[in-house]
TrEMBL record:
Residues 72-216 form the Cell envelope-related transcriptional attenuator domain. It comes from Deinococcus aquiradiocola. It holds the Pfam family LytR_cpsA_psr. It comes from the Bacteria. InterPro entries: LytR/CpsA/Psr_C, LytR/CpsA/Psr_CW_biosynth, LytR_CpsA_psr. PANTHER family: POLYISOPRENYL-TEICHOIC ACID--PEPTIDOGLYCAN TEICHOIC ACID TRANSFERASE TAGU. Belongs to the LytR/CpsA/Psr (LCP) family. Residues 297-378 form the LytR/CpsA/Psr regulator C-terminal domain. This is Membrane protein.
Amino acid sequence: MPRFRPFLTLAVVLAGGVALLAPAAPALGRFGSLPRASERPVTLLLAGVTPNYPPSAVWPYPAAPEDYSGLTDTIVLAQVQPDGQVRLLSIPRDTWVNVPGWGYGKINSANRRGGPDTLVQAVQQLTGLRVDAHALLSLNALRDLTDAAGGVNLTVPEDMRYDDTAGRLHINLKAGPQHLNGQQAEGFLRFRHDALGDIGRVSRQQMFLGALAARLRSPLNAWRLPAVVGALDRNASTDLTRGTFGAVLGALLHGPKVSAATLPGRFGPGGTWSPDAAGIRALVQEQFADPGDPRALSVALVNVDAPQGTARRVKARLEAAGYRDVRIVSEDRHALPRTTLSGNAGAAGALRRDLGYGVPDGSAGAPGVALTVRLGADAR
């Protein structure tokens, strides 16, 4: 029997490992990827979706099956840097924007109106940052994620008391340092009766995400990670690819270091949040801009040999894709069979991919801009 003891020990260890990894198995099956180094940041759009309820039912009643088509109560851009830094940009749900294809309204309506693609476009237009992948999270995600992590430690800024029997929401938290389980964390984030309204909720979202990152960063909680991955997978709809997942894993191996900011703006009519365009540009350039991403740079369009109106149409296309500073510049017209791109080689290559045509050109660009596109006869 003694000679078989090492094999029995190994079998027990393997069985325990399989049990620990089991909650993450569905996610690993879809996104399983070795960590890889990335040369550029990965920007993820995270949005918490409110439940939909049957219109003919009477309170209290359960929500309809989750299809991730509701309003987005929480909107956060998470930019994962190659060195492991995670920069968060919270976007208040009441931010007043031009929703692509729908007109002006609160940004939290974008997902309900046009789905996640419309939400991504609205966020890209607002911030000028390219979104690499999105994840829509159900209401249950917060509770499951917190419990999978073993709770979070944070300081509750004020006493919070609220009861909504019909909505099955009961909040009773005391001010001061607390260890919150999933149900308590949900109440902490959903509480709305403070002086700052939606901006107060954004501040609490940032507190929670920082506390969660600190919890998961501890080596003592490494064994909880499969359960956390499983909780996310059960409660999310995402277009994350294996390549993007691998880049995120590679960055987070350095240990997540989280910093957070809120979209610059001010309170507007009806409790809306009016974005400060100049403040957003400054914040993005200082904390979030990727020098290889042309959306963060100024772009000049010059109609050299394309049909009239082409520059205007290309400008609209680029702005819909998240470019924030696109200008139309005049130069003398002449024969130009192919569109040319001048400026930073890496950014010009990414711009070419967005356009779908064009060739690099070493000539001088238009003054005062980072990239110049001279539209030739092939422009469309």
